[in-house]
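Repro:
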Amino acid sequence: MSTFRSTSMLLRQAQARVLVVGSGRMGHIRTKALYGNPRIQLCGIVDTNIEQAKSLSELYRTPLFASLKEAISSTATTQLPLDGVVISTPTPTHESIIIEAAQNNLSIFTEKPVDETAHNTSSLFQTCNNQNVNLCCGYQRRFDSSYQALFHHVNSGAIGTPLAASIFFGDHPVPS
């Protein structure tokens, strides 16, 4: 077997099969990143707002589903099971989506915050732990160079002991 063929087969086998739940601004950002990652196979977009989600599913040539249940049922007919979901929906919807994904043994990446209360957040992590699935909450800003520099300056004592902070962050891309 040629090296190219065996490497190609290895890459195909190593791909995680993932759904994106939510087609708003963060859904677009996450879908673009997943689509461009050779370790990911984008298996569909899930959104109750079909009209909003249609252009995203067409752009990335992936199926569109109105519910997570529909997506799981549809993909269950393939030889390869789903591996996970990326949740990019409003916070009040996270709980039901996380529980449904966990009950179907799917690893979960969700936007912050996981839930609106600390109690529910802990409960959701416990639910996922009990189901033996991963739950990860995205908080990507901690690795930004400006945040890293601030962390270094504060920890090194270079700016003294902070008593208060007022921070403005201009999100990119800017919401429309």
